[in-house]
Amino acid sequence: MSSTKPISLVVSITFFFFLLLQPSSAQTVVKGSYWFPESEFPVTDINSSHFTHLFCAFADLNSQTNQVTISSTNQPKFSTFTQTVQRRNPSVKTLMSIGGGIANKSAFASMASNPTSRKSFIDSSIRLARSNGFHGLDLDWEYPSSAAEMNSFGTLLREWRSAVVAEASNTSRPRLLLAAAVFYSSDYYSVLYPAQAVASSLDWVNLMAYDFYGPGWSTVTGPPAALNNPSNAGPSGDAGVRAWIQAGLPATQLVLGFPLRPSYYAATTGSAISPDGSIGYGQIRKFIVDNGATTVYNSTVVGDYCYAGTTWIGYDDNQSIVTKVRYAKQKGLRGYFSWHVGADDNSGLSRAGSIFFRLLNIRFFLYEAKGNIFTSFHVFGFNSLTGMGCYGGHHGYPKEVLKFQLFRQWLVKMFVFVTYK
């Protein structure tokens, strides 16, 4: 009788390994992050094994020609981006992102309002994507701000989709992926996105569910990337997801965004630590240690913050990220993305999201000491920066099962190169 228990345990562990190592389906899910040259983070340092999609940002819009261009400074890095990141992960898909937060918004509005200029934009974007080895294109127009601009945005997307379909048919090449980074909600300060055009034209949208508060644009301190807002008095990722779905965009076309860099305040005097209040995750860890800062995880809004003296810092740590990953999976979203990979500290946050999102697909069996049967357990998640805890499952199991629970926690800590399924 006792000899069957180790055999069953080995079978369970083997089954667990099998599920964990199954190849990912990169076309059905998105586990992405953005990279941009100004971060000074080398492309060769990106651990692409944590991602299904990587966004190379940003190509520019020439306001005179309405063509998409890559600066001479960025051209060498853009042209080798796909080749470089595929060394670690041959299946990762790359998209060339166009625009960005500091891009000329008027130039995008002007381009999108005219059929000739839209064609120049579309044709040049496809040409650049192909010549630089990208698998897709990502539009980051922040943001169409009137009903007319939203209508032009929808028209641009429809024509863009038709063009990439035609190009693929004419060249017998796989169709370029199309995505867009959009406001966290379908309602941009009472101006509505053309949800139907978005749904029929894009493969997915990246919801920028962050930068809700920051020293450069808000007068009060608040969670910069709250998933929930119980009072409904402020922005939140969940409110944005619900708004997009209610507008008609399927959940499977929504990708939830979160930041890998914090927002900082020095009491009420503005930004702290850096001029604009924006630095990397590694620097916040150093700040906490150097200043003996108090750290707090707010499970209600799903966000972390720390404070020392007059400095308050809002950010996402491991627990916030895996909670958001769980939310994305439970809501049936297409996946998640982060801004930006260069702000991560030794890929710690990217690894946390990657492993947990993969584990959410797994149900495996544990041998129960009494009854000689297998019992299905829910997967478990991170509960701190360094440890993991069990979510779901059952209580009251005998010592052998409790030992296995500890062992399976150790197993997950070993899987730092798991790919998303």
TrEMBL record:
Residues 1-26 form the signal peptide. One of its GO terms (molecular function) is chitin binding. It comes from the Eukaryota. One of its GO terms (biological process) is carbohydrate metabolic process. Residues 29-360 form the GH18 domain. Keywords: Glycoprotein, Glycosidase, Hydrolase, Signal. The keyword Lyase does not apply. One of its GO terms (cellular component) is extracellular region. Belongs to the glycosyl hydrolase 18 family. Chitinase class V subfamily. This is GH18 domain-containing protein. It comes from Brassica carinata (Ethiopian mustard).
